[in-house]
């Protein structure tokens, strides 16, 4: 506060006028912020405007299981629609990233860009309020504000990237069990759509995410999409090369009329071999990865134990001289 008052004093040349301008600026800012929030809330609570926003979003309200979005989500969608990137390639890449992370809603891109825009502004405002309370130089203040703004811009991207990696890791870990269940179901005489439905039901508790993806594949097949196209969309939604390889083999099997059970069994064997090779590769890297812990953790204590007594004896010998 004293820092801001000092700026106003240097600008006006009078301490009383600076205090008056400072109080006036705080009052006007508070009133404008309150009016802006009130207008946003009134606009979102207006039944006509809210209904139009829901219709544009694709929400019909006829299904009891479909929940209407909240006011905050509608606000983020509006902000995202105004400031989202107009480049189709960039929008498609963002949509793919969010789909891999588990965000499949139609407004995910708008909400993502709105959060990336509003978080730097919020952190910048917080930094502007906090920095005058800390007695630091102007260069440090500028550096801190720039760092905070950059972090606000990067944090949503880092969070989505980490969520994508974690989700793909869980799907990759659950895929071998699903593949084994598919082999058993197909060999018992079930058709491919029925097999996918049964596997989704069996894995609904242990592996909910993969079960949800398989249930979506089954729903698409029931809606009239071919099995090959539905599985190809599954590979695109998950972004896993293992599922992409399975889709390619199943597409060839369906196209040329070969046995789906034989195809699944062969791919299961190949997948087990790849898992074994991946485990052996990780095991072979352990020796290289242990170099740095040995250098920085074990060797200093070893040299201390091995050379320490000799160094103490040397110091005592030279000390007696």
UniProtKB/TrEMBL annotation:
Compartmental location: Cell membrane
Pfam families: T2SSF
Domain of life: Bacteria
Mode of membrane association: Multi-pass membrane protein
GO cellular component, one term: plasma membrane
UniProt KW Membrane keyword: yes
Type II secretion system protein GspF domain location: 179-306
Keywords: Cell membrane, Membrane, Transmembrane, Transmembrane helix
Main location: membrane
Transmembrane segments: 20-42, 113-134, 140-160, 290-315
PANTHER family: INTEGRAL MEMBRANE PROTEIN-RELATED, PILUS ASSEMBLE PROTEIN
Protein name (database record): Type II secretion system protein
Species annotation: Pseudomonas fluorescens
Biological classification of the source: Bacteria, Pseudomonadati, Pseudomonadota, Gammaproteobacteria, Pseudomonadales
């Amino acid at each position: 506060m004293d820092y801001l008052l000092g700026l106003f004093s240097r600008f006006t040349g009078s301490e009383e006028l600076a205090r008056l301008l400072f109080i006036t600026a705080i009052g006007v800012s508070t009133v404008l912020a309150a009016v802006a929030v009130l207008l946003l809330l009134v606009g979102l609570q207006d039944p006509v405007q809210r209904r139009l926003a829901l219709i544009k979003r694709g929400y019909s309200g006829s299904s009891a299981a479909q929940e209407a979005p909240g006011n905050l989500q509608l606000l983020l969608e509006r902000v995202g629609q105004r400031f989202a990137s107009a480049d189709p390639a960039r929008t498609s890449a963002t949509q793919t990233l969010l789909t891999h992370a588990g965000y499949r809603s139609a407004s995910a891109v708008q909400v993502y860009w709105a959060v990336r825009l509003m978080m730097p502004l919020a952190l910048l405002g917080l930094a502007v309020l906090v920095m005058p309370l800390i007695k630091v130089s102007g260069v440090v203040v500028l550096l801190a504000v720039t760092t905070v703004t950059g972090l606000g811009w990067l944090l949503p991207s880092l969070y989505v990237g980490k969520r994508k990696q974690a989700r793909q890791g869980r799907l990759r870990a659950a895929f071998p069990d699903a593949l084994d269940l598919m082999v058993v179901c197909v060999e018992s005489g079930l058709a491919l759509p029925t097999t996918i439905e049964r596997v989704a039901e069996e894995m609904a508790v242990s592996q909910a995410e993969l079960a949800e993806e398989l249930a979506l594949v089954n729903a698409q097949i029931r809606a009239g999409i071919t099995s090959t196209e539905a599985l190809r969309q599954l590979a695109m939604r998950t972004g896993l090369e293992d599922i992409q390889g399975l889709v390619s083999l199943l597409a060839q099997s369906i196209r040329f009329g070969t046995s789906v059970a034989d195809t699944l069994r062969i791919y299961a064997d190949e997948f087990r071999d790849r898992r074994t090779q991946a485990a052996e590769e990780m095991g072979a890297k352990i020796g290289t990865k242990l170099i740095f812990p040995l250098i920085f953790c074990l060797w200093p204590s070893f040299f201390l134990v091995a050379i320490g007594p000799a160094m103490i004896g040397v110091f005592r010998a030279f000390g007696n001289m």
